[in-house]
Design a protein that fits this description.
The chain is 24% helix and 23% strand. With 390 residues, it is an alpha+beta fold. The chain has 2 domains: 156 residues, no CATH class; 184 residues, no CATH class. It has a 5-stranded antiparallel sheet. It has a 5-stranded mixed beta barrel with strand order 10-12-14-16-15. Helix 1 runs antiparallel to helix 2 and helix 6 packs parallel to helix 7. It is rod-shaped, with a radius of gyration of 34 Å.
């Protein structure tokens, strides 16, 4: 009997889908990992961009708050911008800037006609000044731009988690902000009586106003006040008196050159402020005693001792001052107010002089009514507006 021959069972055929599924799964996981890396990196970029913007906004607002129409104000603005920048972090690194390159001064305006330094076409927005222009024309600076970034220049570039996985190990992020400073570059209404800047500030380096004592301007050739011509008329006391008598308002006056004359012919201006001048076309006049008014501040070439201004020439308006007209005196030195009113009390003024105007500086009041511009000199102190515009 022949032995039984074992039967060999045939191997089942290999399923070709098994390997393909594994490869597909691997590819799917790789794509999902790439999307995850991109999502993480995008979130990191957006978060860092938000942190940079917060730092730029903070630094720009701080810098704008130091603009005061002087070169010291520009230097202080850069110092403040750096300090506030370094108070922020962008992801894993403390932020810093190079103030000389990343803090840029200029002027914010809403129409091309307001452009000062640009050549050719200038559109509305931020007009950037070079340092040479800004520091040579500090009173024209109304705004400041601060630039920051994780871009390899201001800070290191941003390292991206899983960046190598998608071929982008690092990224550069940049931000900037523009803020308009306190004060005003234009006003809606001003009287044609210009005050020398050295009359209202204690020294060239100070941004403070002399608020502790009244300002007195009298019939004197060195009283630190002058008459301003806002149009083609000569700058003198007679024309200033006619302007006030007529109830006219110099609107839209901006920082810039005007013609100014020494305020040594106050007689007609005194009458006009009391409302007893020739009056307007209807024969009526307004008494300004006790009223708040805006006066232009003049950079009148005060000397190194911060006195002896010179008015008989073209001089720049560098800002505006809000004052209350307390009283006037006549040619005999008698104190006068509005007609039929008792004389105002100016007992705190030791010697007002003859044909004089006595003013109080409204240091803690609202800023002078402004047009669309900001910046220029600090005029009224605490109520001035600092705002982001870009």
């Amino acid at each position: 009997m022949r032995p039984a021959v074992p039967r060999v069972q045939a191997r089942p055929a290999r399923d070709p889908q098994v390997g393909a599924a594994a490869v597909t799964s691997l590819l799917f996981l790789m794509v999902m990992a790439a999307f995850l890396a991109i999502s993480i990196n995008t979130g990191l970029l957006m978060s860092t961009r938000t942190q940079l913007q917060a730092g730029a906004d903070s630094a720009a607002l701080a810098a704008a708050g130091r603009l005061d129409g002087t070169t010291n104000g520009l230097n202080n603005a850069r110092t403040s911008a750096l300090r506030f920048t370094e108070g922020h972090r962008a992801y894993d690194e403390q932020m810093t800037i190079t103030p000389s390159a990343d803090v840029i001064f200029g002027r914010w305006h809403y129409s091309s006609e307001d452009c000062i330094a640009s050549t050719g076409t200038c559109s509305a927005g931020f007009e950037s000044f070079s340092d040479a222009f800004a520091f040579g024309n500090a009173a024209r600076v109304t705004a400041v731009r601060v630039i920051n970034g994780r871009d390899g220049t201001r800070n290191s570039v941003l390292s991206l988690p899983f960046g190598s996985f998608v071929g982008t190990p690092t990224a550069s992020v940049r931000s900037d902000a523009v803020a308009v400073g306190e004060g005003t570059g234009s006003v809606d209404c001003a009287l044609p009586i210009g005050v020398a800047i050295c009359k209202i500030r204690p020294n060239q380096a100070s941004a403070d106003l002399r608020c502790t004592e009244p300002l007195t301007f009298s019939n004197d050739t060195n009283d630190e006040v002058g008459f301003v011509s806002f149009d083609s008329s000569p700058a003198n006391g007679n024309n200033a008196g006619d302007f006030i008598n007529a109830g006219m308002c110099a609107d839209g006056i901006q920082v810039g050159q005007v013609r100014v004359q020494n305020g040594n012919d106050f007689g007609q201006v005194i009458d006009a402020l009391r409302g007893v001048g020739r009056g307007n076309s209807n024969g009526t006049s307004t008494c300004y005693i006790g009223s708040r008014q805006v006066l232009p501040i003049i950079d009148a070439g005060c000397n190194e001792n911060w006195n002896n201004p010179r008015f008989n020439r073209d001089s720049p308006i560098v800002g505006f001052l809000e004052v209350t007209i307390r009283a006037v005196t006549d040619q005999n030195g008698d104190v006068l107010g509005c007609p039929n009113d008792p004389p105002p009390d100016i007992s705190d003024v030791s010697n007002p002089g003859r044909n004089a105007v006595v003013l109080d500086v409204d240091c803690d009041g609202a800023p002078a009514s402004a047009g669309g511009l900001g910046g220029g000199e600090v005029i009224s102190g605490t109520a001035a507006t600092i705002r982001l515009v870009q």
